[in-house]
Amino acid sequence: MRLIPRSAGLAALLAGTLLAGAAAAQDTNSQGERLPHVDGNAPATGTAASTQGAATGEPVETEAANAPDQEPAFAGQTRAPQPTAMPEVSTQTVAEGLPNLWALEFLPDGRMLVTAKEGRLMILPAMGQEGEPIEVAGVPEVDSREQGGLLDVALGPDFASDGMIYFTFAEPRGAEGNGTSLARGKLAMTDGAAALEDVAVIFQQTPSYEGNKHFGSRIVFDDEGKLFLGVGERSDDPIRDQAQDLASGLGKVFRINADGTIPEDNPFVDQDGAQDAIWSYGHRNIQSAALDADGRLWTIEHGPRGGDELNGPEAGKNYGWPEVTYGIEYGGSPVNQGVTSREGTEQPAYYWDPVIGPSGMALYQGEEFPEWQNAFLVGGLVTQGLVVLTMNGEGRVETESRVPLDARIRDVKVGPDGAVYAVTETRGGGSTILRLTKA
């Protein structure tokens, strides 16, 4: 693989290399004709351009909400204004013809470690280097049906010395069904070959369930080397109600030591009947997570139809799902009679109606885009581009802007060169990796 110019096909898809100013508003037409399950659906077709030409200082989203009678709990909780200055962005394809990727992580030498949904782990050459992808041997079997597969990957906190990587996958569990599991192994690379050694599953989401949706998941290490793992609640009704059950691992954020043991200061360690790995609960399907500049965890989860939400999960807190949520069921009926607030549950810091379809999230810290310094960059499966969020000192969204890429974005990372790398996916097809720089 080598650095390549955009092919004619991709050039037509992207409709130009420069994405500037107000043109950075993504067209997301009516959700009414989308398939029943938003996670993984492309935008609907139509003539209305919901965000095209939105002015700076005004919300980028102008389409009607799915739940127009629902009111935000505080000003700025949804449809934040665009910033007054937005950078012009140039895009370049650095890899194409790849299988359906799910996650990307940079190795210290600049090479890219990527997961493919079907169960493949690969190492791609660094920018400016030629070569073919290196298949990493030793990946355990995955259940790749529907939303399952080999999912997130992260370098361990001591990777430079021990070579350990961590990854999540939909683990087949025989007659019990499947579930999201966290594994680790040593990445051994010699003479153009690579393999995982001493692979071990160090944590399993339980109970298992025979389903094919809402596995999550994202891995984030904090500054102390503790691991946060966000997972889904498996989608189906009634099992999704276990997001509220502390005896169940569905719909949770977990906090785990790097060796798979449980930190003694987790909020439910001494509570009878509760899983001691739980950090927070009441989540739907987390597929975006990152630390902010102060080391605080933030997650974004897929909501129902009009209910994607940004949260800063805190120890022991309940984030509501499915008893409290914005948005409506995919079929159009209220979720739990349309309750959007209740004592004992936390409000999202921000929510989207219509949804963005979040997947992947990175804190931007670099020199390429000074306008984005300390902003969150979020992949949009439904909005088909990047969503850029700046935060204020009170943990609220200050501005939201969008960079249209005309492709479903599964993951986003900031490279060692300060450029932004976005992993695209095609429904039922393959992936490309795009490099975004200042125009």
From TrEMBL:
Q: Which domain of life is it from?
A: Bacteria
First and last residue of the signal peptide: 1-25
Residue span, Glucose/Sorbosone dehydrogenase domain: 100-429
Q: What spans are recorded as compositionally biased (Low complexity)? A: 42-57
Task: List UniProt keywords, sorted A-Z.
Answer: Signal
Q: Which Gene3D superfamilies match?
A: TolB, C-terminal domain (2.120.10.30)
Task: Write out the ranges of the annotated region (Disordered).
Answer: 29-91
Q: Does the keyword Signal apply?
A: yes
Q: Which Pfam families match?
A: GSDH
Whether Signal counts among this entry's keywords is yes
Protein name per UniProt: PQQ-dependent sugar dehydrogenase
Organism this protein belongs to: Aureimonas flava
